[in-house]
Amino acid sequence: MLIIVGQSLISGILMGGIYALVSIGLTLIFGVMNVVNFAHGEFLMLAMYLTFWVFHYLQIDPYVSLLIVTPALFLIGVVTQKYLIQHLIQAEHYTQIFATVGLSTIMANAALFFWKADYRMVKTSYVSSTLTFSDLVVSYPRLISFLVAIGITVLLFLFLKYTYLGRAIRATAQDIIGARLMGVNINRVYIFTFGLGSACVGIAGALLMPIYYAFPTVGLHFVLTAFVVVVLGGMGNITGALFGGLVIGVVEAFSGFFISPELKEAVYFVIFVLVLLVKPSGLFGLTKG
Amino acid sequence: MEVKKINLGYGQMQVLKEVSLHVGDQEIVSLIGANSAGKSSMLNAISGLVPISGGEIRFEGKRIDSLPSHEIIEYGIIQVPEGRRIFPFMTVKENLEMGSYNRRAREKNRDSLQRVYEHFPRLAERKSQLGESMSGGEQQMLAIGRGLMAGPKILMLDEPSLGLGPIVVEMIFKVLQEVNRQGVTILLVEQNVKESLDISTRGYVLENGRVSLEGAAGDLLKNSYLKKAYLGL
Amino acid sequence: MSFLKGNYFLGFLILLALLVAVVQNAFVLHLLIMVFTSAALGLAWNFIGGYGGQLSFGHAAFYGIGAYTSTLLFVHLGLTPWLGMIAGGILAVVASLILGIPCFRLRGTYFTLATIAFAEVLRILVVYFKEFTGGSIGIVLKFNAGFLNMMFKNREPFAYVALGFMILTYFLSVWIENSRLGYYLTALKENEDGARALGINTHRCKLIALMISAFLTALIGSFFAQYLTFIEPESEFSLGLSIGLTLSVMIGGIGTAMGPVIGAFIITPLQELLRIYISGEHQGLQNIIYGIVLVVVVICIPQGLYKWIVGTVLKKRAA
Which residues, other chains included, contact B3 with Cβ-Cβ below 8 Å and sequence gap of 6+? Predict the structure, then answer.
């Protein structure tokens, strides 16, 4: 029994790392720009497909194609920000929501149109390899993906804390007028932040390919999960998103095992609503760290 | 700094009507007036946060009124805004270092920091404390310190004494004089008429978006209208 | 704005009724049914989304509750859908209270996210309890023509019912707009704290708007179950449906009674035509188009066509 609990725990934590990475992109964008991007999941989908095609045509391993996918998604983020999101920042809430929902519809259906509905998988040599620690079995690619996700999070954290641009981003999130008066070019910060958030999602996409599969609407599941994580961790809070991701990963694994695999999503949505009610600023408070 | 006949409106409201003022090198100039007289708008116009509709703003001879705010900062025109606007979740040190974000100030970061700690020893004591946990007076010191970190040629302050007790106000104004002696020009927007005119070279009084009085600080303090309206005498 | 209300609109409605009576072509009738229900759904959503200012992307929950309740009662107990849909409506109202009472404390985007989660949970639950609901396979309604069964051999009666829904929701909207509830809703949309300071019970207002919205949406869900004779969780509870039913509102004008009607008349024929002429191989193309339309409309004419037209006409008159 203990072994099964342990197994679920590990499985949950490993998946949670990836949820965390997807959510970090979302929360960063929200914290800095106050824009909710409903199309965030479609960026993930795009990254997954890109990883797939790179593997399919160039035989490049997903973990290596990170070097291609990440800048690609960064660029896509920058372009989206410049030509769409920028117009939404001053707009009414409902305009933001509808416009990004529209974008999400366009992207998901474009994927459906061009690439069809088939599931795409990346089959590398190590896809089914496992490591065994006493009685616990750990999927090798899941472990790698988890470690990379954590590594990126740490890097991001250091970037935000110690570089001038990183601080400019935090300053913009905390007091935009104060930031402007210190000479921060807010437009550039917005563009960069959106690109950065998209890059995070891009990395998550590449990391997901060895352990999941791509299809046009894969974004929906992950974006809903990401929203739950973001709310749990506090909108704009990066460390919160990290812990929130791990928590959700574990909750999902446990409810999948102890309640029912079909109901696991329902469980964390219920948690989502509960958190929204009890502490809408997230379990980790208001900090925009 | 030369502001010539600028107009500024928000929608239907004209906030500044043909206002002109100038600040000479190393002067301390006060801009006085009641609430919503247009004082903050003046500073925001100079800093490039709001557009003007008519007139021009020049600094050291160059026109700056249509430049974006981050370029205006590079000229050394630094504003310490109303309400301080410090970064609540950054430490004192991080707040100050954010001050030297602009390119001109970055290399001088260490020296500037040293000097700010000399002006405001309290900030040095609390350098690892988060901005939001500081008292009003400390936050004001932090805001001014941050402004100084930006390497200003002219430092513009929007109501620094607002909400602060007299001892802190006195201390802050002393620091401003000291900073001025070190070569920084100061444009001071205040409701606290006596304190600010006391340290100023010249002053302007803004009423309903127009300059109603101007002159040397000493003369203004003796002006009967000013005494009645703003000093309650 | 009144030039479109009152007599003109009544005349328009009579025209539509005549149209239904006269037209024999099954496709055109189908088109009319789709337009009327699309308008009705949009108007129903508008109660909470437009007048209430709370964007819900979970209305499929209420639609699905309506569809499943009346269908299950019909298939298992033989209850006539005319009553079944009322039952569905009542259940939807209960659901809306479960959603609204806790979640109206949330502002803006948080509320929208909660509605999405709500619909998703319902979908998951319906799939899970498959012995009761038929699971993801869905339920087929055996065709058995008759008024009590709300099933008809040709489409004309369906069209009348659909028209009836549209008229009902339209006049309810107009009534609300001019009622005290409507004024309260406008006030709280502009400034919720201010409204509360004036003594308006904002939670109650929003809840009432949501309840009305849920009830009407469920009715239409039931109607559609009878019309299509097939229901499944993917269609009835999908996010795509929730988003789709707001399309006519956004195009026509959010927060107005005419808006969803105009929007429906414009977008629904386009949708149906696209569905026919773009066959299965080009899956997804029509949704790409809707997405583009949504983005363009929301950015360029966020107030919707109706307000835009009225605004331009008023400006010309003033000039």
Answer: B19, B20, B21, B22, B42, B46, B55, B57, B58
